[in-house]
Design a protein that fits this description.
This protein is mainly alpha-helical and 455 residues long. Helix content is 67%, strand content 2%.
Length: 455
Protein backbone atom coordinates (compact mmCIF):
# COMPACT_ATOMS: atom_id res chain seq x y z
CA UNK A 1 0.00 0.00 0.00
CA UNK A 2 2.87 2.38 0.69
CA UNK A 3 4.03 2.00 -2.92
CA UNK A 4 0.47 2.62 -4.12
CA UNK A 5 0.14 5.76 -1.98
CA UNK A 6 3.54 6.94 -3.20
CA UNK A 7 2.44 6.44 -6.81
CA UNK A 8 -0.72 8.48 -6.23
CA UNK A 9 1.13 11.28 -4.46
CA UNK A 10 4.07 11.51 -6.86
CA UNK A 11 2.51 10.64 -10.23
CA UNK A 12 -1.25 11.13 -10.19
CA UNK A 13 -1.57 14.16 -7.89
CA UNK A 14 0.68 16.56 -9.87
CA UNK A 15 -1.08 15.79 -13.16
CA UNK A 16 -4.53 15.98 -11.60
CA UNK A 17 -3.72 19.29 -9.89
CA UNK A 18 -2.64 20.81 -13.18
CA UNK A 19 -5.82 19.59 -14.86
CA UNK A 20 -7.94 20.98 -12.03
CA UNK A 21 -6.48 24.45 -12.53
CA UNK A 22 -6.26 24.48 -16.34
CA UNK A 23 -8.27 27.51 -17.46
CA UNK A 24 -9.63 26.00 -20.66
CA UNK A 25 -10.92 22.88 -18.91
CA UNK A 26 -12.44 25.06 -16.18
CA UNK A 27 -14.14 27.19 -18.82
CA UNK A 28 -15.48 24.06 -20.54
CA UNK A 29 -16.85 22.68 -17.30
CA UNK A 30 -18.42 25.91 -16.07
CA UNK A 31 -19.68 26.96 -19.48
CA UNK A 32 -21.47 23.70 -20.19
CA UNK A 33 -23.02 23.80 -16.71
CA UNK A 34 -24.96 26.82 -18.02
CA UNK A 35 -26.97 24.40 -20.19
CA UNK A 36 -27.86 22.05 -17.34
CA UNK A 37 -30.92 23.88 -15.90
CA UNK A 38 -32.45 24.07 -19.37
CA UNK A 39 -31.78 20.39 -20.11
CA UNK A 40 -33.26 19.36 -16.77
CA UNK A 41 -36.41 21.40 -17.51
CA UNK A 42 -36.59 19.81 -20.96
CA UNK A 43 -36.16 16.39 -19.33
CA UNK A 44 -39.21 16.95 -17.14
CA UNK A 45 -41.38 17.60 -20.20
CA UNK A 46 -39.81 14.63 -21.98
CA UNK A 47 -40.78 12.42 -19.04
CA UNK A 48 -44.37 13.70 -19.21
CA UNK A 49 -44.49 12.73 -22.88
CA UNK A 50 -43.51 9.09 -22.29
CA UNK A 51 -45.07 8.01 -19.00
CA UNK A 52 -45.49 4.20 -19.22
CA UNK A 53 -49.03 4.02 -17.79
CA UNK A 54 -51.85 2.23 -19.67
CA UNK A 55 -54.39 4.74 -20.96
CA UNK A 56 -52.11 7.74 -20.39
CA UNK A 57 -51.83 8.61 -24.09
CA UNK A 58 -55.60 8.47 -24.54
CA UNK A 59 -56.13 10.62 -21.45
CA UNK A 60 -53.73 13.30 -22.71
CA UNK A 61 -55.30 13.21 -26.18
CA UNK A 62 -58.76 13.73 -24.71
CA UNK A 63 -57.56 16.94 -23.04
CA UNK A 64 -55.08 18.42 -25.53
CA UNK A 65 -56.10 16.76 -28.79
CA UNK A 66 -54.39 14.21 -31.02
CA UNK A 67 -51.34 16.46 -31.39
CA UNK A 68 -50.81 16.60 -27.62
CA UNK A 69 -47.33 15.07 -27.86
CA UNK A 70 -46.10 17.77 -30.25
CA UNK A 71 -47.45 20.52 -27.99
CA UNK A 72 -45.99 18.95 -24.87
CA UNK A 73 -42.54 18.68 -26.44
CA UNK A 74 -42.26 22.39 -27.35
CA UNK A 75 -40.13 23.05 -24.24
CA UNK A 76 -37.92 20.06 -25.12
CA UNK A 77 -36.99 21.66 -28.42
CA UNK A 78 -36.48 25.04 -26.75
CA UNK A 79 -34.01 23.54 -24.25
CA UNK A 80 -32.19 20.55 -25.75
CA UNK A 81 -32.06 22.05 -29.24
CA UNK A 82 -30.16 25.19 -28.21
CA UNK A 83 -27.57 23.33 -26.14
CA UNK A 84 -24.65 24.25 -28.42
CA UNK A 85 -25.66 27.90 -28.65
CA UNK A 86 -25.87 28.31 -24.86
CA UNK A 87 -22.65 26.35 -24.28
CA UNK A 88 -20.78 28.50 -26.80
CA UNK A 89 -21.77 31.65 -24.94
CA UNK A 90 -21.09 30.12 -21.51
CA UNK A 91 -17.64 28.75 -22.35
CA UNK A 92 -16.53 32.00 -23.97
CA UNK A 93 -17.89 33.96 -21.00
CA UNK A 94 -16.07 31.84 -18.42
CA UNK A 95 -12.79 31.80 -20.35
CA UNK A 96 -12.90 35.58 -20.75
CA UNK A 97 -13.43 35.86 -17.00
CA UNK A 98 -10.25 33.84 -16.47
CA UNK A 99 -8.37 36.34 -18.66
CA UNK A 100 -10.08 39.31 -16.94
CA UNK A 101 -11.52 40.78 -20.15
CA UNK A 102 -15.15 41.70 -20.72
CA UNK A 103 -16.94 38.31 -20.64
CA UNK A 104 -20.28 39.54 -21.97
CA UNK A 105 -18.76 40.86 -25.19
CA UNK A 106 -16.61 37.73 -25.55
CA UNK A 107 -19.70 35.53 -25.25
CA UNK A 108 -21.63 37.56 -27.81
CA UNK A 109 -18.74 37.46 -30.29
CA UNK A 110 -18.41 33.69 -29.85
CA UNK A 111 -22.12 33.16 -30.58
CA UNK A 112 -21.82 35.25 -33.73
CA UNK A 113 -18.76 33.29 -34.83
CA UNK A 114 -20.56 30.00 -34.16
CA UNK A 115 -23.45 31.05 -36.41
CA UNK A 116 -21.01 32.05 -39.16
CA UNK A 117 -19.42 28.60 -39.00
CA UNK A 118 -22.85 26.96 -39.26
CA UNK A 119 -24.40 26.32 -42.69
CA UNK A 120 -27.81 27.95 -42.60
CA UNK A 121 -29.44 25.59 -45.05
CA UNK A 122 -28.69 22.28 -46.77
CA UNK A 123 -29.75 21.44 -50.30
CA UNK A 124 -28.81 18.90 -52.97
CA UNK A 125 -27.54 19.28 -56.49
CA UNK A 126 -29.33 17.43 -59.31
CA UNK A 127 -26.63 14.74 -59.00
CA UNK A 128 -27.61 14.17 -55.38
CA UNK A 129 -24.50 15.75 -53.86
CA UNK A 130 -25.18 17.58 -50.61
CA UNK A 131 -24.07 21.20 -50.56
CA UNK A 132 -24.45 23.95 -47.99
CA UNK A 133 -25.81 27.36 -48.90
CA UNK A 134 -26.82 30.23 -46.71
CA UNK A 135 -30.44 31.34 -46.81
CA UNK A 136 -31.46 34.30 -44.71
CA UNK A 137 -33.49 33.46 -41.62
CA UNK A 138 -33.14 29.67 -41.79
CA UNK A 139 -30.99 28.30 -38.95
CA UNK A 140 -30.70 24.50 -38.67
CA UNK A 141 -32.02 23.57 -35.24
CA UNK A 142 -30.15 20.26 -35.28
CA UNK A 143 -26.81 22.09 -35.34
CA UNK A 144 -27.84 24.33 -32.45
CA UNK A 145 -28.20 21.27 -30.22
CA UNK A 146 -25.92 18.36 -29.39
CA UNK A 147 -24.79 17.91 -33.01
CA UNK A 148 -23.19 21.34 -32.92
CA UNK A 149 -21.81 21.10 -29.40
CA UNK A 150 -18.21 20.30 -30.28
CA UNK A 151 -18.07 23.02 -32.92
CA UNK A 152 -19.47 25.42 -30.33
CA UNK A 153 -16.72 24.42 -27.89
CA UNK A 154 -13.96 24.95 -30.46
CA UNK A 155 -15.39 28.25 -31.64
CA UNK A 156 -15.80 29.52 -28.06
CA UNK A 157 -12.17 28.72 -27.18
CA UNK A 158 -10.79 29.95 -30.51
CA UNK A 159 -12.72 33.22 -30.58
CA UNK A 160 -12.03 34.07 -26.94
CA UNK A 161 -8.30 33.45 -27.32
CA UNK A 162 -8.16 35.86 -30.27
CA UNK A 163 -10.46 38.31 -28.50
CA UNK A 164 -8.38 38.51 -25.33
CA UNK A 165 -5.03 38.70 -27.16
CA UNK A 166 -6.17 41.71 -29.19
CA UNK A 167 -7.46 43.45 -26.07
CA UNK A 168 -4.39 42.59 -23.99
CA UNK A 169 -2.21 44.07 -26.76
CA UNK A 170 -4.36 47.20 -26.46
CA UNK A 171 -5.42 47.15 -30.12
CA UNK A 172 -8.80 48.67 -29.31
CA UNK A 173 -10.90 51.77 -29.88
CA UNK A 174 -10.88 53.91 -26.77
CA UNK A 175 -13.72 56.31 -26.09
CA UNK A 176 -13.30 59.64 -24.30
CA UNK A 177 -13.88 59.91 -20.58
CA UNK A 178 -17.47 60.51 -19.68
CA UNK A 179 -18.83 57.93 -22.14
CA UNK A 180 -21.02 55.38 -20.31
CA UNK A 181 -19.07 52.18 -19.48
CA UNK A 182 -21.48 49.97 -21.45
CA UNK A 183 -20.93 52.03 -24.60
CA UNK A 184 -17.16 52.15 -24.04
CA UNK A 185 -16.98 48.34 -23.67
CA UNK A 186 -18.87 47.90 -26.93
CA UNK A 187 -16.31 49.95 -28.82
CA UNK A 188 -13.42 48.17 -27.08
CA UNK A 189 -14.85 44.89 -28.41
CA UNK A 190 -15.22 46.22 -31.95
CA UNK A 191 -11.74 45.47 -33.37
CA UNK A 192 -11.41 42.04 -31.66
CA UNK A 193 -14.89 41.15 -32.90
CA UNK A 194 -14.01 42.10 -36.48
CA UNK A 195 -10.88 39.92 -36.37
CA UNK A 196 -12.69 36.94 -34.81
CA UNK A 197 -15.65 37.06 -37.17
CA UNK A 198 -13.44 37.58 -40.21
CA UNK A 199 -11.23 34.64 -39.19
CA UNK A 200 -14.16 32.25 -38.79
CA UNK A 201 -15.67 33.53 -42.05
CA UNK A 202 -12.41 32.79 -43.89
CA UNK A 203 -12.29 29.31 -42.36
CA UNK A 204 -15.81 28.62 -43.58
CA UNK A 205 -15.11 29.96 -47.07
CA UNK A 206 -11.91 27.91 -47.20
CA UNK A 207 -13.71 24.68 -46.29
CA UNK A 208 -16.43 25.29 -48.88
CA UNK A 209 -13.86 26.02 -51.60
CA UNK A 210 -11.86 22.91 -50.71
CA UNK A 211 -15.06 20.92 -51.02
CA UNK A 212 -15.77 22.28 -54.49
CA UNK A 213 -12.20 21.46 -55.53
CA UNK A 214 -12.72 17.91 -54.17
CA UNK A 215 -9.60 18.36 -52.01
CA UNK A 216 -11.44 17.27 -48.86
CA UNK A 217 -12.73 14.19 -50.64
CA UNK A 218 -9.18 13.10 -51.41
CA UNK A 219 -8.43 13.29 -47.67
CA UNK A 220 -11.37 11.05 -46.87
CA UNK A 221 -13.84 13.81 -45.97
CA UNK A 222 -16.46 12.98 -48.59
CA UNK A 223 -19.58 15.18 -48.76
CA UNK A 224 -17.96 17.50 -46.22
CA UNK A 225 -19.12 21.06 -46.72
CA UNK A 226 -18.72 22.70 -43.31
CA UNK A 227 -16.75 22.73 -40.09
CA UNK A 228 -19.62 20.78 -38.51
CA UNK A 229 -19.16 17.96 -41.02
CA UNK A 230 -15.41 17.77 -40.41
CA UNK A 231 -15.77 17.71 -36.61
CA UNK A 232 -18.51 15.07 -36.83
CA UNK A 233 -16.31 12.80 -38.95
CA UNK A 234 -13.29 13.28 -36.69
CA UNK A 235 -15.27 12.55 -33.52
CA UNK A 236 -17.55 9.80 -34.77
CA UNK A 237 -15.06 7.02 -33.98
CA UNK A 238 -14.09 8.23 -30.47
CA UNK A 239 -17.77 8.81 -29.66
CA UNK A 240 -18.59 5.34 -30.91
CA UNK A 241 -15.91 3.83 -28.69
CA UNK A 242 -17.34 5.46 -25.58
CA UNK A 243 -21.05 5.13 -26.26
CA UNK A 244 -20.74 1.52 -27.38
CA UNK A 245 -17.79 0.31 -25.37
CA UNK A 246 -17.63 -1.15 -21.90
CA UNK A 247 -13.89 -0.44 -21.82
CA UNK A 248 -14.49 3.28 -22.39
CA UNK A 249 -16.99 3.43 -19.53
CA UNK A 250 -14.64 1.55 -17.18
CA UNK A 251 -11.70 3.84 -17.98
CA UNK A 252 -13.82 6.94 -17.29
CA UNK A 253 -15.12 5.50 -14.01
CA UNK A 254 -11.63 4.47 -12.93
CA UNK A 255 -10.12 7.89 -13.65
CA UNK A 256 -12.89 9.72 -11.79
CA UNK A 257 -12.29 7.71 -8.65
CA UNK A 258 -8.51 7.78 -8.82
CA UNK A 259 -8.78 11.56 -8.72
CA UNK A 260 -11.23 11.44 -5.82
CA UNK A 261 -8.94 9.35 -3.63
CA UNK A 262 -6.27 11.98 -4.26
CA UNK A 263 -8.61 14.58 -2.79
CA UNK A 264 -9.64 16.04 -6.15
CA UNK A 265 -13.17 16.26 -7.54
CA UNK A 266 -12.85 13.66 -10.28
CA UNK A 267 -16.18 14.35 -11.97
CA UNK A 268 -15.51 18.08 -12.19
CA UNK A 269 -11.97 17.69 -13.50
CA UNK A 270 -12.94 15.21 -16.22
CA UNK A 271 -16.23 16.96 -16.86
CA UNK A 272 -14.67 19.44 -19.27
CA UNK A 273 -13.59 16.58 -21.51
CA UNK A 274 -16.31 14.00 -20.95
CA UNK A 275 -19.49 16.04 -20.49
CA UNK A 276 -19.78 17.04 -24.18
CA UNK A 277 -19.33 13.40 -25.23
CA UNK A 278 -21.86 12.08 -22.71
CA UNK A 279 -24.37 14.84 -23.46
CA UNK A 280 -24.13 14.14 -27.18
CA UNK A 281 -24.83 10.44 -26.59
CA UNK A 282 -27.70 11.38 -24.25
CA UNK A 283 -29.32 13.63 -26.83
CA UNK A 284 -28.97 11.00 -29.54
CA UNK A 285 -31.08 8.71 -27.36
CA UNK A 286 -33.59 11.50 -26.78
CA UNK A 287 -33.98 12.12 -30.51
CA UNK A 288 -34.38 8.39 -31.17
CA UNK A 289 -37.05 8.16 -28.46
CA UNK A 290 -39.03 11.03 -29.95
CA UNK A 291 -38.76 9.48 -33.41
CA UNK A 292 -39.87 6.08 -32.15
CA UNK A 293 -36.56 4.52 -33.15
CA UNK A 294 -34.23 2.13 -31.33
CA UNK A 295 -32.06 3.90 -28.76
CA UNK A 296 -28.45 3.88 -30.02
CA UNK A 297 -26.24 4.45 -26.95
CA UNK A 298 -25.67 2.52 -23.74
CA UNK A 299 -23.15 4.86 -22.12
CA UNK A 300 -24.70 8.29 -21.65
CA UNK A 301 -24.71 10.90 -18.92
CA UNK A 302 -27.72 9.38 -17.09
CA UNK A 303 -26.17 5.90 -17.44
CA UNK A 304 -23.99 6.87 -14.49
CA UNK A 305 -27.11 7.70 -12.44
CA UNK A 306 -27.41 3.93 -12.07
CA UNK A 307 -23.78 3.68 -10.95
CA UNK A 308 -22.70 6.75 -8.95
CA UNK A 309 -25.43 6.46 -6.32
CA UNK A 310 -24.96 8.59 -3.24
CA UNK A 311 -22.13 10.31 -5.09
CA UNK A 312 -18.89 8.92 -6.46
CA UNK A 313 -17.75 5.61 -5.01
CA UNK A 314 -21.37 4.55 -4.33
CA UNK A 315 -20.55 5.76 -0.83
CA UNK A 316 -24.20 5.77 0.25
CA UNK A 317 -23.93 2.10 1.22
CA UNK A 318 -20.88 2.88 3.36
CA UNK A 319 -22.85 5.61 5.14
CA UNK A 320 -25.83 3.28 5.70
CA UNK A 321 -23.45 0.76 7.30
CA UNK A 322 -22.24 3.46 9.68
CA UNK A 323 -25.80 4.27 10.72
CA UNK A 324 -26.92 0.65 11.14
CA UNK A 325 -23.88 -1.36 12.18
CA UNK A 326 -21.12 0.93 13.48
CA UNK A 327 -19.76 0.20 16.96
CA UNK A 328 -17.32 3.09 17.04
CA UNK A 329 -18.73 6.41 18.23
CA UNK A 330 -16.75 8.21 15.54
CA UNK A 331 -18.31 6.03 12.85
CA UNK A 332 -21.82 6.49 14.26
CA UNK A 333 -21.52 10.26 14.39
CA UNK A 334 -20.11 10.48 10.88
CA UNK A 335 -22.96 8.30 9.62
CA UNK A 336 -25.55 10.60 11.18
CA UNK A 337 -23.90 13.63 9.60
CA UNK A 338 -23.41 12.07 6.15
CA UNK A 339 -26.69 10.18 5.63
CA UNK A 340 -28.87 13.11 4.53
CA UNK A 341 -26.35 14.52 2.01
CA UNK A 342 -25.69 11.00 0.66
CA UNK A 343 -29.36 10.50 -0.17
CA UNK A 344 -29.02 13.51 -2.48
CA UNK A 345 -25.70 12.30 -3.95
CA UNK A 346 -23.46 14.63 -1.93
CA UNK A 347 -20.62 12.57 -0.54
CA UNK A 348 -17.95 15.08 0.52
CA UNK A 349 -18.74 14.59 4.24
CA UNK A 350 -17.79 10.92 4.06
CA UNK A 351 -14.98 11.26 1.49
CA UNK A 352 -13.15 13.81 3.61
CA UNK A 353 -14.60 12.82 7.00
CA UNK A 354 -13.84 9.08 7.11
CA UNK A 355 -11.56 9.89 5.27
CA UNK A 356 -11.53 8.01 1.98
CA UNK A 357 -8.88 10.34 0.58
CA UNK A 358 -5.44 8.71 0.69
CA UNK A 359 -6.80 5.98 2.94
CA UNK A 360 -5.31 2.64 1.80
CA UNK A 361 -8.17 0.66 3.36
CA UNK A 362 -11.19 2.61 2.10
CA UNK A 363 -9.90 3.60 -1.32
CA UNK A 364 -10.08 -0.03 -2.45
CA UNK A 365 -13.89 -0.40 -2.24
CA UNK A 366 -14.33 3.25 -3.25
CA UNK A 367 -12.61 2.56 -6.59
CA UNK A 368 -13.60 -1.07 -7.07
CA UNK A 369 -17.35 -0.71 -6.42
CA UNK A 370 -18.25 1.76 -9.20
CA UNK A 371 -16.10 -0.16 -11.68
CA UNK A 372 -17.99 -3.38 -10.88
CA UNK A 373 -21.36 -1.60 -11.09
CA UNK A 374 -20.40 -0.07 -14.43
CA UNK A 375 -19.84 -3.60 -15.72
CA UNK A 376 -23.09 -5.00 -14.29
CA UNK A 377 -25.19 -2.08 -15.56
CA UNK A 378 -23.65 -2.21 -19.01
CA UNK A 379 -24.19 -5.97 -19.31
CA UNK A 380 -27.80 -5.74 -18.14
CA UNK A 381 -28.53 -2.98 -20.67
CA UNK A 382 -26.67 -4.77 -23.45
CA UNK A 383 -28.67 -7.92 -22.80
CA UNK A 384 -31.95 -5.99 -22.90
CA UNK A 385 -32.95 -6.78 -19.32
CA UNK A 386 -32.72 -3.10 -18.40
CA UNK A 387 -33.87 -0.45 -20.92
CA UNK A 388 -31.32 2.06 -22.15
CA UNK A 389 -31.46 5.60 -20.80
CA UNK A 390 -34.07 7.54 -22.75
CA UNK A 391 -32.42 10.94 -23.06
CA UNK A 392 -33.84 12.51 -19.92
CA UNK A 393 -31.31 14.03 -17.52
CA UNK A 394 -32.49 13.88 -13.90
CA UNK A 395 -31.08 16.57 -11.58
CA UNK A 396 -27.86 15.21 -10.09
CA UNK A 397 -29.33 15.50 -6.59
CA UNK A 398 -32.18 13.08 -7.41
CA UNK A 399 -32.11 10.23 -4.85
CA UNK A 400 -31.35 6.67 -6.00
CA UNK A 401 -34.32 4.53 -7.07
CA UNK A 402 -36.14 7.67 -8.27
CA UNK A 403 -33.26 8.62 -10.58
CA UNK A 404 -33.19 5.11 -12.06
CA UNK A 405 -36.84 5.35 -13.03
CA UNK A 406 -36.44 8.82 -14.53
CA UNK A 407 -33.28 7.93 -16.46
CA UNK A 408 -34.79 4.87 -18.13
CA UNK A 409 -38.52 5.61 -18.00
CA UNK A 410 -39.02 2.18 -16.46
CA UNK A 411 -39.27 0.53 -13.04
CA UNK A 412 -36.47 -1.72 -14.25
CA UNK A 413 -34.08 1.22 -13.94
CA UNK A 414 -34.94 1.40 -10.23
CA UNK A 415 -34.52 -2.37 -9.96
CA UNK A 416 -31.06 -2.08 -11.49
CA UNK A 417 -30.13 0.47 -8.85
CA UNK A 418 -31.36 -1.85 -6.09
CA UNK A 419 -29.30 -4.72 -7.52
CA UNK A 420 -26.26 -2.43 -7.74
CA UNK A 421 -26.74 -1.28 -4.15
CA UNK A 422 -26.79 -4.90 -2.96
CA UNK A 423 -23.57 -5.62 -4.88
CA UNK A 424 -21.99 -2.45 -3.47
CA UNK A 425 -23.02 -3.49 0.05
CA UNK A 426 -21.30 -6.85 -0.36
CA UNK A 427 -18.07 -5.20 -1.60
CA UNK A 428 -17.96 -2.54 1.12
CA UNK A 429 -18.90 -4.74 4.09
CA UNK A 430 -15.53 -6.39 4.91
CA UNK A 431 -13.70 -3.07 4.52
CA UNK A 432 -16.28 -1.32 6.68
CA UNK A 433 -15.80 -3.89 9.43
CA UNK A 434 -12.04 -3.41 9.40
CA UNK A 435 -12.38 0.38 9.38
CA UNK A 436 -14.93 0.40 12.21
CA UNK A 437 -12.74 -2.00 14.20
CA UNK A 438 -9.80 0.35 13.78
CA UNK A 439 -11.86 3.30 15.02
CA UNK A 440 -13.11 1.33 18.01
CA UNK A 441 -9.57 0.27 18.89
CA UNK A 442 -8.35 3.86 18.69
CA UNK A 443 -11.15 5.03 20.96
CA UNK A 444 -10.22 2.37 23.51
CA UNK A 445 -6.51 3.09 23.17
CA UNK A 446 -5.75 -0.36 21.77
CA UNK A 447 -4.49 0.55 18.32
CA UNK A 448 -2.42 -2.62 18.15
CA UNK A 449 -5.50 -4.84 17.95
CA UNK A 450 -5.54 -7.25 15.04
CA UNK A 451 -8.25 -5.70 12.87
CA UNK A 452 -8.30 -8.66 10.53
CA UNK A 453 -10.24 -10.55 13.22
CA UNK A 454 -13.18 -8.30 12.39
CA UNK A 455 -13.84 -10.35 9.32
Amino acid sequence: MSKYNSFLENKVMPIASKMAGQRHLLALRDGIILTMPLIIIGSLFLILGFIPIPGYNEFMASIFGDAWMTKLLYPVGATYDIMALIATFGIAYRLAEQYKVDPLSAGAVAVSAFLIATPYFTMFTPEGTEIAVQVGGVIPVTLMGSKGLFVGILIALFSTEIYRKIIQKNIVIKMPEGVPPSVSKSFVALIPAVIVISSVWLIRIGIENLYHLNFLGKLGFTNTTSLHDIITLLLSEPLGILSGSLIGAIIYTLLVHLLWVCGLHGSSILGGVMTPILLTATDQNRLALQAGEELPNIVTSPFFELVFMGGSGVSIVFVVMMVLFAKSEQSKQLGKIAIAPSIFNINEPVVFGAPVVMNPLLMIPFILTPVVLTVTTYIMMKSGFIPLTNGTLPPWTTPPIISGFLATGSWKGSLMQIINLVIAFAIYLPFFKMWDKQNTAMEKGTENINVTKAI
